[in-house]
């Protein structure tokens, strides 16, 4: 199998169903950003120590989910059934809840940083937020998309935030806080 097809040499790419779009199309940007998130998750998995085997498995499942979301974004409505559904959303929310219980409550904004793995999760979070903005543009432009996938992307950025905090916690690295804002979260 050849890795290059030359079909994109004129700035176009095919999406599922065969339609050709400019590589600068908002749809292509959205799933391209998710591909970038996926690469960061791969980097994190490669750096996780053996004591984090469960997290490695969870992240590998998230990589598959990110690929599925990208596939759904590359699929115009009506071509085939979407992959991502409500169950995927609930699974991501369950991960958020589980890891949120493992970290201390905060009252201030957290600055990206701390342990190297925490920093990588923050990068994955910000790239995911970019993808969310790009998907929002598709919705604003009236392009039908899988709304379950859209919601999952929103939750994934929240999960990556919690996982960044978790990495700082388990490696006993003091989280950098944004001190100028004062107390912004009220843990009642």
From TrEMBL:
NCBIfam families: PduO_Nterm (TIGR00636)
Organism superkingdom: Bacteria
Gene Ontology molecular function terms on file: corrinoid adenosyltransferase activity
Keyword GTP-binding: no
Species, as recorded: Enterococcus eurekensis
Domain Cobalamin adenosyltransferase-like residues, every copy: 3-167
Parts of the chain that traverse the membrane: none
PANTHER family hit by this protein: CORRINOID ADENOSYLTRANSFERASE, CORRINOID ADENOSYLTRANSFERASE MMAB
Enzyme class: transferase
InterPro entries the record matches: CblAdoTrfase-like, CblAdoTrfase-like_sf, PduO-typ
Keywords: ATP-binding, Cobalamin biosynthesis, Nucleotide-binding, Transferase
Catalyzed reaction equations: 2 cob(II)alamin + reduced [electron-transfer flavoprotein] + 2 ATP = 2 adenosylcob(III)alamin + 2 triphosphate + oxidized [electron-transfer flavoprotein] + 3 H(+); 2 cob(II)yrinate a,c diamide + reduced [electron-transfer flavoprotein] + 2 ATP = 2 adenosylcob(III)yrinate a,c-diamide + 2 triphosphate + oxidized [electron-transfer flavoprotein] + 3 H(+)
Protein known as: Corrinoid adenosyltransferase
Residues in coiled coil: none
